[in-house]
Each structure stands twice: as structure tokens, then as C-alpha cells.
Amino acid sequence: MTDHRITGASVSRRAVLAGGGAVAATLALNTSASAETIDRLHFLVGFGAGGGFDQTARGTMEALQKSGLMANVSVENRTGAGGSIAIAHLIETAPRQQNTLMVNGTSIVIRSLSREFNQTFRDVTLVNAITSEIYGVLVAANSPYTDLNQMTEALRGNARAVRLAGGSPRGGIDHMAAAKYAKEAGVQPRAIQYIAYDGGGRALAGLLGGEAQALFMPFTEALPQVRSGQVRLLALMSDKRSPDVPTVPTMGEKGLPKALMYNMRAFMAAPGMAPARVNAFADLMERLIATPAWEEVRARNAWNTFFLRGPALATFFETHEKELRELLTELGFIG
Question: What is the per-residue burial (b if ≥16 Cβ within 10 Å, else e) of 269-303?
């Protein structure tokens, strides 16, 4: 079943200009090739309302409007088949999608590698990365593991000594995070014990109930439980600490500098979009992340701003795909 829902609002001219000075509702962006005018923006989301991709689209819409950078912004949820309905729609209707940006990211890499659908990130036009969810390693407050090194040593002694868990199915990104940690700790990823829950909420319940002993998920999903003291965040799977949890160490600080995992969100355009227009969209987003309106949305959602564009973005996707392919192969999900 698919859900084609379009929501959005054009704010008033007064609201557009508030705090924006001379910034106009229609944004003319000069690139090295030509001048491109963007007068509206439509976000395409392949998953349901309330999920991470949807939140990214709606949060960006809010920031664009509040900053005065863009007034006419909308969001469409075109769900089904793990996001492939939206991807196919963008590709098949490419000539009509010159004002559309699809939100996707790590998901398209994993699902294409797993052959859940035929499209890959190479079938669309990469515009820019915007945020990334940093993965964390969580244990219950009463866990005997008060430091990640203790858990790492236990796993090295017996790969099934710790019941690891996540809110995605086997082969999903939470499983990839647990596998990446195990691999960098010198443990065979296929040997670990991974409990798959249907979503982060159920995974947290499993951790608090004692069924799971360590949980791998975006740490922002568990911030309320971390702040209330129900769970303990042992480490972040990032190369630097987060201002949202400044006392939590990184994997590098725990001797595992390559045990990194991000759930990246990016904007993608239709195939064949002119480079000048792609650059104009990327310019718009680069200006956005420097505004107070973006910082307000980012802080509220505890997002990690992660901006890449152009060749750097393409290289990131290629590297990300290579790493995930290796993990999926080691786990036996692909040949």
C-alpha cells in the first residue's frame, strides 16, 4: 500500500522577510555555470510521517521558511517498498521534478546492496548531505558494564557473551552498527548474538527488561532515557564528541577509532538535472545550515549537522557502500 500525502505551507511575505533582511522569497543563486532561480522546493519522502527521513524534510522546511531563504516549500510522503516507490517515481518523472529533492541516505545503500530493490544512489543525482544520526552503545543503568572496554573484553573472550540488539532487522543498519563494533574489536561479526526488534522503542524496552544487554541505535532516540538515568551511554560511534552528550567518549577514545557508524541523511535530485541547478540547491542548503533557524531545529532534534556536496559527497557514498558491502558479506547477507 502506498501513501501519497503532500503537506506544506507558504508563509507570508512578512514572515519570509522577518529576520532575513533583504533575502527574498524567490532565491536567485549564482553558480559558475549560470544563474539558477529556485522559487519553490518540494521534498519527496519514501517513508511515513514521523520517521527520520520525514523529520529531516519537515525540519528543513521549517528552517527554510523561518530563515527567509525559501517560502514555498512542501513535503510529500510517497511510501512503499522500503522507499523504492519514491525513488522510482523520481526517476520515471524526472523531467517534471526540477524543484524536487528526495530525502534518503544510508538506507538506499543498504537496501540496494541487499537487493531489496534495483535502484542505487547512482540512479539519482546527489545534491548534498545534511545531517547524520550518530550511533551509540547503550546499556541499562544496572548493567555490570560501566565502561565500553569491559564489554569489549567480554566479547573478545566469547563472541556470544553479550546479547547485542537493535531496532532494525538482521542486515539492517542497527545490525551493521553492532557488526562494525565487533569487527573493529577483533570479533567475527557473524559470531555475535544480535536480537532484532521492530523499532527503537521496542529495542529500549528489551534493554530495560533485561532481554538485551547492549543496544546499538542512534543515541538521540534514547536521550530521554539517558537523561533520566534509565540507560547509560557507553560510547558514541563517531570521531568526535557530541555537544548534546559532552561527557560521553567516542570509540576512538576507547581504542576503536574505525568503529564508526552514522545514519546519514541526504538530498537527492532527479537524474539528469543540470549541474548548475544541482549547485544552486546545494548552495541553498549550505546557506541554511549557517542560520539561527537551522540551529534551532537542529538543537531541538539533537541532530548532527553533516554537510557534504559535490565530489566529496560522491566519495562518501562510494566509501560508505564499500564498508557496508564488506559487513553484509561477512554477515552472510550477500555473496
Answer: bbeebeeebbbbbbbbbebbbebebbeebbeebbb
Q: 273 or 3, which is more confident?
A: 273
pLDDT given at position 35: 65
* CA dihedral for 84, 72, 307, 234, sign (positive or negative): negative
In sequence order, the β-bridge partners of residue 75 are: 7, 43
Cβ atoms 105, 264 nearer than 8 A: yes
Instruction: Indicate the residue among 261, 295, 317 that finishes a domain.
Output: 261
d(CA 195, CA 30): 51
Mean pLDDT, all residues of the chain: 89
**Cα angle 305, 180, 85; round to 5:** 60
CB 63 within 8 Å of CB 105? no
Nearest to 329 by CA among 110, 168, 169: 110
Task: Report the residue count for the chain.
Answer: 335
Among 3-17, 46-60, 153-167, the minimum mean pLDDT is found in: 3-17
CA–CA separation, 282 vs 307, rounded Å? 10
Q: Which amino acid is at 48?
A: G
Q: Which CATH number covers residue 81? A: 3.40.190.150
Beta bridge partners of 194: 164
Q: Answer yes or no: is 332 within a domain.
A: no
pLDDT-based confidence at 1, cuts 50/70/90? Answer: very low
For 151, the grid coordinates are: 564489554
Q: Read off the amino acid at residue 308.
A: L
